[in-house]
Disease resistance protein At1g59780 (Sesamum indicum), 324 residues
Amino acid sequence: MAEGMISSEDKGKGESLRDVAERYLFEPENRCMVQVEIDELPLYKRFKSCRLHDMIRDLCLSKGKRKGFLEVMDREMGGGDSAICKTNRLAIHAVGVDNDLSQRIGENKNIRSFVFKGYQFENWKLPKGIAKWELLKLLSLENSIVKELPPSICKLPCLQTLNVKNIMRLPNCIYKMKRLRHLFMKDDHERVGGEKLKFEGLNELEMVDDIWVGDVVDDITHLLKLPKMDMDVNTNREDGSTLFRRFVMYHSLHYLRITHCRVSKLPTYEVQLYQNMIELQLVGTRIEEDPMKILEKLPMLRVLGLWSNPYVGREMVCRATGFP
């Protein structure tokens, strides 16, 4: 998706690019070119994982490297860096620091996709040349050691997918990434300067993972007005009943996981609430009244998760006629 391989012209009514991408995957799966694992329920399919068969993977890597389309580097296995300054897509699997590699990465102005796993950058900082990555669409720093995300990251005009789940300090300029679609964050991140993290203006965002909403509720509800949204929410509010109602009143919300937020009572079911809620995960919500009286009426709900004291009452009743 972030590479622009999914055409918006193929979108059906009410579909997102992610829906189109999932349809694209079924064709190579049917031809046994890829292995796809999905959670499949009526009216709802979600991909859990996708991987290539060994022979197809070797063929793709060989052709990708030859054409300068893709290169995977495993520094522990002695992976070379001859093409690091000219390849468009680079995945690095490494442990430890490689100062020379960090410097050479910063020199590549044509990079479109960077995936780092287990990489420790020099001085725990991204390369200085990051502002030159004007074509970059995907940046993933999963399990890599970076202390702080530089403000220059927000100057990348094409960035659509950003994974910074391991980074503690974030600059308050993410709202400037107008083309951002997928954002993966650390729930207990710090904001540089201590300001509230802003999201207003991110009109193409479809997925937010592990966001702390204690002080950004207004911007979050702005996001919920978008055509489709999945959200993983953490908050320490003593009573989040009002906040929860604000979430479920938006028809665009398909998936919601809310954690560490006491919701004493779920909002009463109304036609305009929970309209398209397909999956709901409640963690530590300490609901006082039986939630099944409400949840059993949700017309689109297919997955319900209750974890770590979601309900503190004495009795929960699941009726045979519930959950249509």
Summary: The chain has a mean pLDDT of 78.
